[in-house]
Predict the 3D structure of the following.
Amino acid sequence: MKKDIAANEVRNEEHFEFDLLTSLMKEIAMFRATLNMESDRGCALMAASYLEGKVRDILRSIYADDVALVEEVLNRLTFADAVNQVYLLGLLPEKMKRDIGLIRKIRNEFAHTESPVNFETGSIADRYQCLHHASRVSKKIGDSRSQFTSAAISIALCLMYERVERHHATIPDDIDYDEPTSAPQLAVLLTREVSAKGSHLMA
């Protein structure tokens, strides 16, 4: 009986993982298709906006389950602030944080430059060439836009996986705050110890 229950749990987990992977890949495919349809400027703006949303989703998933307050706090954070918070929580590898910063700066240059610009424009080219998460193929063929989009897609997928690993911060109602032995349990809950599950993000 116990073996049957255990086998069912394994099958259910495998089914969940398959459905999750399928869902994520569909969303990434749509993201890629959208980027491909955009101009260079639109591609940069769209990619940065999408990644910002995914970073904020990670924070939503670990903050306390108080939607109104969470949104109030998130509205005060810039893109850079949100990235720094996820990084300081140990949920974002340094190289990925750096790449998101480069994508954000590329976005800003496209957004604040009135004259025609593209991915071959001087300072923009200098930045995309430093993207660690750009695919090897795009680097090999030397296509500027492909390097940018492949990095954005790789980062987006990693952020999406990280999002599903997180859970809202909750404090059990039965914790006795006057009992010293409750302190370690409460500390773990409040500090959100980083799970080893995030190790697959290390670049």
Q: What stands out?
A: The CA atoms of residues 11 and 17 lie 10 Å apart. Confidence is low (pLDDT under 50) at residues 189-203.
